[in-house]
Design a protein that fits this description.
single chain, about 300 residues, mainly beta, OB fold (Dihydrolipoamide Acetyltransferase, E2P), 3 domains, 5-stranded mixed beta barrel
Length: about 300
């Protein structure tokens, strides 16, 4: 089965290199309808994308730059933001003029094929690869295939609350996500269900250990400290700490029936760490139902797909 991946995933593949090497090879790719990738080096004043090729250059005309550009449902910033990044495309023509060779390319055609053959066949609960492309206070935009965008709302990124998606992600990061809902052909994603239940995360820690964490919020009754994206604990109130700082904490107790972790702050310092590598408990297949809460807890936290 043909795979449709986020842009950049096939750029360095032997097959992609083979078809980019010459006009003749690109014409072969055109005949076979193969999706290729290249590096966009410029966006012209007409908003055509210029792609660097070993033998010349490629041009993606503005209306071929993305699905929805011609209709006005996609803004031109979607083209400008591709400069100095990898773009996917299908070859539509090879032009020879005054000794120069120009390949005419279409990113729109690649996206339409991806939508038709892959995205339109997704179902709620499907776990898919994605690539972070843009972060906003309300959520993370990701590429789910050939540059087709989708959104992970901030409250669906993790169980542990964050103030901004850049607390968890960075642009260009490869992640996994789960299809939460599909409305009018638009895919909305979730992420927290892939990061483990309370019990799975709590099993990584033991009372008596001193570990690192991130202060996520300070409340009159205590300080919430994240130990893992889906696990936070509570420490006694202090006036000298603030959200976003890093901390070393002593684990006083793990209480499954209350889904609580009791902590004692050992030290607090400025958090200079890059978002850490994500530990996925699920990275493939399909989820019908996911329950974060423990069996002994009176509180139920469930996602149904």
């Amino acid at each position: 089965m043909k795979k449709y991946l986020p842009e950049g995933k096939i750029f360095n593949s032997p097959e992609n290199g083979y078809y980019l090497r010459s006009p003749e090879a690109m014409m072969e790719a055109q005949r076979n309808g193969i999706i290729l990738e290249g590096h966009a080096v410029m966006c012209t004043t007409d908003h055509d994308l210029v792609v660097e090729l070993p033998f010349g250059r490629g041009i993606i005309p503005r209306i071929e730059g993305a699905v929805g550009i011609a209709e006005g449902t996609t803004r031109d910033i979607a083209l400008l933001s591709r400069v100095n990044k990898t773009v996917c495309f299908k070859v539509t023509d090879i032009l020879h003029h005054d000794g120069n060779i120009t390949a005419v390319l279409s990113r729109r055609l690649a996206q339409e094929e991806c939508i038709s053959e892959y995205i339109s066949r997704l179902h709620c609960g499907d776990v898919i690869p994605a690539k972070v492309t843009h972060l906003e206070p309300f959520g993370a935009f990701v590429d789910i295939g050939c540059g087709v965008p989708s959104l992970i709302p901030i409250d669906a990124i993790s169980v542990s609350r964050i103030s901004h998606p850049n607390d968890r992600f960075f642009n260009g990061q490869d992640i996994f996500a789960v299809v939460k809902n599909i409305e009018d052909g638009r895919i909305c994603l979730s992420h927290k269900e892939l990061l483990g239940t309370w019990e799975q995360n709590a099993a990584l820690f033991s009372p008596g250990e001193t570990v690192g964490g991130v202060i996520r919020s300070t409340e009159p009754y205590g300080i919430f400290i994240e130990l893992a994206p889906n696990l936070a604990g509570l420490a006694e109130p202090r006036n000298d700490v603030s959200a976003g700082q890093a901390a070393s904490v002593y684990i006083k107790a793990l209480i499954p029936e209350k889904m609580k972790v009791k902590l004692i702050i050992v030290d607090v310092f400025e958090n200079l760490c890059f978002p850490s590598k994500i530990n996925y408990f699920i990275d493939s297949g399909r989820i019908d139902r996911w329950e974060y809460s423990t069996k002994s807890s009176k509180k139920t936290i469930v996602s149904v797909f």
